[in-house]
């Protein structure tokens, strides 16, 4: 098997409101297309079921205080920022999303597949050590990174090509010399962070690379040799 795709129908359940930008259609359309293309019948593709992330996996990235806030929000609901509401019961969806990222990493580490894609939601890169925001509650890629490090990989590189800067991921690894965080994002877009001068801290100086680019930048800009 070459490529694993982690997916579960429960990834469609999370809902802040039916018209919210981060709604089920974000991946429902992708799944429709994969079904249409009969991708699951491709011999090179393996569909992988996710598991929930465990509490100690969450705590490898987020603070205990923050996890307590998530649990409280899970009962009563909470508005983390103007666009990020945690509706009651949201936490199991967030844990399945983080667990899906971990599952994708584990599938590669065990040799089950050569590479993998986690088709998961809610998203994660705006969630920092102690904060939610930008539709994100748990930093999925960070939880996966810690999991693969715990299974023997020392250094990890994260390439983040969302139009937004992944301020949460940067926050988590800003002083970690073993994780190289690279973000290519639209300049002056949400959340406004990710300046070129932000390069990491202390022993991790140089382990954060931010490349803000102009809106509408083409593939030519992505391929431009900067080094
Ligand atoms: Zn984003």
UniProtKB/TrEMBL annotation:
GO terms for biological process: epigenetic regulation of gene expression. Residues 20-224 form the Histone deacetylase domain. GO terms for molecular function: histone deacetylase activity. InterPro entries: HDACs, His_deacetylse_dom, His_deacetylse_dom_sf, Ureohydrolase_dom_sf. This is Histone deacetylase.
């Amino acid at each position: 098997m070459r490529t694993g795709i982690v997916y579960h129908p429960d990834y469609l359940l999370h809902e802040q409101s039916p018209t919210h930008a981060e709604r089920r259609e974000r991946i429902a359309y992708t799944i429709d297309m994969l079904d249409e293309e009969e991708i699951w019948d491709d011999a090179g593709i393996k569909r992988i079921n996710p598991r929930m992330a465990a509490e100690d996996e969450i705590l490898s990235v987020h603070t205990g205080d923050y996890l307590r806030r998530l649990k409280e929000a899970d009962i009563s609901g909470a508005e983390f920022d103007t666009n990020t509401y945690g509706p009651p019961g949201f936490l199991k969806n967030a844990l399945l999303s983080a667990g899906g990222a971990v599952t994708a990493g584990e599938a590669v580490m065990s040799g089950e597949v050569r590479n993998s894609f986690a088709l998961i939601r809610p998203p994660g890169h705006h969630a920092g050590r102690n904060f939610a925001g930008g539709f994100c509650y748990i930093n999925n890629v960070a939880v996966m990174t810690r999991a693969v490090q715990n299974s023997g990989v020392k250094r990890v590189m994260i390439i983040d090509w969302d139009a937004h800067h992944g301020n949460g991921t940067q926050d988590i690894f800003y002083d970690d010399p073993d994780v190289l965080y690279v973000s290519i994002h639209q300049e002056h877009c949400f959340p406004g962070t990710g300046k070129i001068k932000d390069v990491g801290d202390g022993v991790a100086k140089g382990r954060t690379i931010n490349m803000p680019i102009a809106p509408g930048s083409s593939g030519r800009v992505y391929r431009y040799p900067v080094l």
